[in-house]
From TrEMBL:
Residues 131-414 form the NADH:quinone oxidoreductase/Mrp antiporter transmembrane domain. InterPro entries: CPA3_Na-H_Antiporter_D, NADH_UbQ_OxRdtase, ND/Mrp_TM. This is Multisubunit sodium/proton antiporter, MrpD subunit. GO terms for cellular component: plasma membrane. The keyword Isomerase does not apply. Coiled coil: none annotated. One of its GO terms (molecular function) is NADH dehydrogenase (ubiquinone) activity. The lineage of its organism: Bacteria, Bacillati, Actinomycetota, Actinomycetes, Pseudonocardiales.
């Protein structure tokens, strides 16, 4: 069973290598990507079942035991997030494949897209499974290097500008992360997460606080936490729909996962964190208000993405098993629904020829299927019962209500941010899907991958989007068993004992 833990990292690397070898075989390239991701989904499901039944599954790479060697660990949280992330990655790949077929023909292969796409999946898998800080840094660098390529493929001037912002901020956060690792190693003599849990506790309180704040800032940049979020609304909207969907669904959640793992395992608190509660409120409110001010559909969704990072920070700030479980459940829900909304936004853009909300209208009559594909994830994001968003927010509200006065107050901001989210998506619905029909605008740059005319939108792109909508509905339908798994995962995070015993023996 421990050998399986390596496969989510190794399979995408091998798939990327094969995609390069068969660079002139377009159909084979596509098949390799789909087969690899399906295999990773199966492995992740097996690891989740094993971790839930018997505890964390650990593999010591090279035969070197922890804390000296590198270990990969699949516990309930990491296996669950690996599974849902790979499912979303697979759906996005199907969407991207069909978009490329529609735009460039069935026989057109890609020298970069498929290999880089699989490398991005490698980085995400390694980030979830790694058991030490330096390997986590490597995972982030793999993801970022792949994202640099994906966000600037078939570039124009606007995308180069936004891509430069993304690259500069990412490099800055990477430098800060590396500095944090150096300080941690200098203070403790180890970078193994399980070993750090004991060694950091023996450090002076001031040094512990400094290291904790450094990790919050480092991973807060990657998670787009306010006030470190400014790069995201400028970067994501300028990428093609499948790339934006993948980034929105996965990259920011990996940052939240890193925060959740390090704060509960290495820097556990004695109660709710006032700093994280304040940051959660700022992130929820600033993101939601920013969304209401947007006329660009993709920028609006980007600000909503920022807002809902605050919901996950709130669960982390509660600092108990309920809060950790609520954050885990919210990550699962949000990975799916945010990726879906950006895929549907791509379909809307291809129908209308614009990202301007004011220049759209009447889509409900012209494309009722598209209207349904937008309505379901939009209501899910707002948390309307009985969607998965409602289930996840209810878990967070229950955690906040059971805490201190501060957590109860912030729980009120969760409700406020949810209402603002509902206002934003209803505003989009009224302007885009109701009202008078408006003719599609001509594509002002037919050589990029952002806006293509209505004649080049095919059924499989709708099917991929509908599949993610179905996954979101399935999450709501399986709310009972899934909540039970996240509750056990939250208890493990706060207790720390199962993880420490599995890694250190």
């Amino acid at each position: 069973m421990s050998t399986l833990v390596t496969l989510p990292v190794l399979l995408p690397i091998l798939g990327a290598a094969l995609s390069v070898i068969f660079v002139r075989q377009a159909t084979l390239q596509r098949l390799i990507g789909i087969v690899v991701l399906v295999a990773v989904c199966v492995v992740a499901a097996v690891l989740l079942v094993a971790a839930d039944r018997t505890g964390p599954v650990v593999v010591e790479l090279g035969g070197w035991p922890a804390p000296v060697g590198i270990v990969l660990v699949a516990d309930r949280l990491s296996a669950l997030l690996l599974l849902i992330s790979t499912v979303v990655t697979l759906a996005v790949l199907v969407y991207a494949i069909d978009q490329r077929i529609s735009d460039y023909g069935r026989d057109t292969a890609s020298t970069t897209f498929h290999p880089i796409f699989l490398l991005l999946s490698t980085g995400v898998s390694l980030a979830y499974l790694t058991g030490d800080l330096f390997s986590l840094f490597v995972a982030f660098e793999i993801m970022l290097a792949a994202s640099y390529v994906l966000i600037t493929r078939r570039t124009n001037a606007e995308r180069i500008r936004s891509g430069m912002t993304y690259v500069i901020i990412s490099l800055t956060s990477s430098l800060l992360f590396l500095t944090t690792i150096a300080l941690v190693y200098a203070s403790t003599g180890t970078v193994n997460l399980a070993d750090l849990a004991g060694r950091v506790a023996a450090l002076p309180p001031g040094l512990r606080t400094l290291l904790s704040m450094l990790t919050i800032v480092t991973f807060g940049i990657k998670a787009a936490m306010v006030p470190l979020h400014f790069w995201l609304p400028d970067s994501y909207p300028n990428a093609p729909a499948p790339v934006t969907a993948l980034f929105a669904g996965l990259l920011t959640k990996v940052g939240i996962y890193a925060l959740l793992r390090t704060q509960t395992l290495i820097f556990p608190g004695d109660g709710p964190s006032a700093v994280l509660l304040v940051l959660a409120v700022l992130t929820m409110v600033v993101g939601a208000l920013g969304a209401l001010a947007q006329n660009d559909l993709n920028r609006l969704l980007s600000f909503l993405l920022v807002s809902h990072i605050g919901f996950m920070l709130f669960g982390l700030a509660v600092d108990d098993a309920r809060g950790a479980a609520g954050t885990a459940l919210y990550i699962v829900h949000h990975i799916t629904v945010q990726a879906t909304l950006f895929l549907v936004s791509g379909l809307i853009t291809r129908r209308t020829g614009t990202v301007s909300i004011d220049q759209m209208g009447g889509l409900a009559r012209r494309s009722p299927v598209l209207a349904v594909l937008f309505a379901v994830p939009a209501l899910t994001l707002a948390g309307i019962p009985p969607t998965s968003g409602f289930v996840a927010k209810l878990a967070l509200l229950q955690a906040g209500a059971a805490g201190t006065v501060g957590t109860v107050v912030v729980a009120g901001f969760v409700v406020l941010a949810s209402l603002l989210t509902l206002w934003a998506v209803v505003r989009v619905w009224i302007r885009v899907f109701w009202g008078a029909d408006k003719e599609p605008l001509p594509d002002d740059d037919p050589h990029d991958e952002l806006v293509i005319g209505t004649s080049k939108t095919s059924a499989p792109m709708y099917v991929a989007s509908a599949a993610l909508v179905a996954v979101s509905i399935a999450i709501a339908a399986a709310a009972g068993p899934l909540s039970a798994v996240t509750e056990r995962a939250g208890a493990d995070l706060i207790a720390r004992v199962p993880y420490l015993e599995a890694v250190l023996g």
